[in-house]
Write a structure and sequence with these properties.
Strand order of the largest sheet: 1-4-3-2
Number of strands: 4
Radius of gyration: 14 Å
Strand content: 25-35%
Order of helices and strands: HEHEEE
Distance between the termini: 12 Å
Length: about 110
C-alpha cells in the first residue's frame, strides 16, 4: 500500500474548509459503519520533538493547528505546538506535548505502523 501519510514530502497545508469537509465526511462514514478511520502514534524516543518541530516550522511556518488557539503565553501548556496538514485524502495532526510527540491521521484509510 502506498500511503501518503507516511511520506512527508506529500504533506501540505490544507484549506480550513477542506479540513471541515473531510472531518464531516469521516464522521458521516463512521456513523454508517464500524470501520476505523483514524490512527494515532506517540513518539517519545524515536524522533526528537524539537527536531520535528524545526522541520515543520521551516517547511510550513508557524503552527496552524486548532490547539494553538487555546494555548496560553505561559510555558505550562500541555500542547506546546500543533500543526494540521493534509494529503490527498487524509488530515494529519502533529502535536508537541509535554510527554513527547503525537501524530494523528483522520482519513479514508487506517495506517498500519508495522
Amino acid at each position: 500500500m502506498n500511503n501518503l501519510v507516511l511520506q512527508p514530502d506529500q504533506w501540505s497545508i490544507p484549506d480550513p474548509k477542506r479540513v471541515i469537509e473531510t472531518l464531516n465526511r469521516i464522521k458521516q462514514r463512521k456513523s454508517q459503519s464500524s470501520e476505523k478511520s483514524n490512527s494515532s502514534w506517540r513518539f517519545t524516543d524515536v524522533v526528537s520533538p524539537l527536531d520535528f518541530y524545526c522541520y515543520l516550522k521551516m517547511r510550513f511556518g508557524d503552527p496552524n493547528g486548532f490547539a494553538m488557539m487555546l494555548r496560553s503565553q505561559a510555558v505550562d501548556n500541555f500542547i506546546h505546538w500543533h500543526y494540521t496538514l493534509a494529503t490527498s485524502d487524509t488530515i494529519i495532526d502533529i502535536m508537541g506535548l509535554n510527554i513527547g510527540m503525537e501524530i494523528q491521521s483522520h482519513g479514508m484509510q487506517v495506517i498500519n505502523s508495522g
